[in-house]
Amino acid sequence: MARRPGLSTRARGGIALLALALAAGLPGTGAAQAVASPEVVLLRGRQLVFGSLIPGVPERVSVTDAGRRAELVIEGSGTVELMLLLPPELQSPDGGRIPLRFALGDAAVLGPGSVEASPFDPHRAVTITLHPERGPTRILLGGTAVAGDGHLGGSYSATISVAIVQTVS
Question: Helix (H, G, I), strand (E, B), or coil: what is residue 24?
């Protein structure tokens, strides 16, 4: 995406989700896609969107912000271990970089029929038990982008890889 005129002090940022089902050995393609292990299916993914960034002002997206948080919807049965592989920064096509921070509470699991999400450390694997009769489970992700004073306007992006490993019992 080309730079927009008049945005020299602002940047727009978003993070796409890339799902990898390691148990099935499927290769990633660089975009969210439906993949399956013998017992797990990725139904859909949604980007983490920071929107316009102001230099020097951290922009935090909470897991409770339904309009901007990332969301990965999985369905299946059995126990899985899920690991988010987080990027250290957003990048622009012309080489600009904006640091990212992911802290405890920036990731959560929202079980089927639940109204309250269970937070987890996005830097550590989380174990989830899936129940097909109850419906899909949502993985929610927020984070913070920190545009410094020297960052130029434009489009910035990054990819988060999600490893889903079926646990054999």
Answer: helix
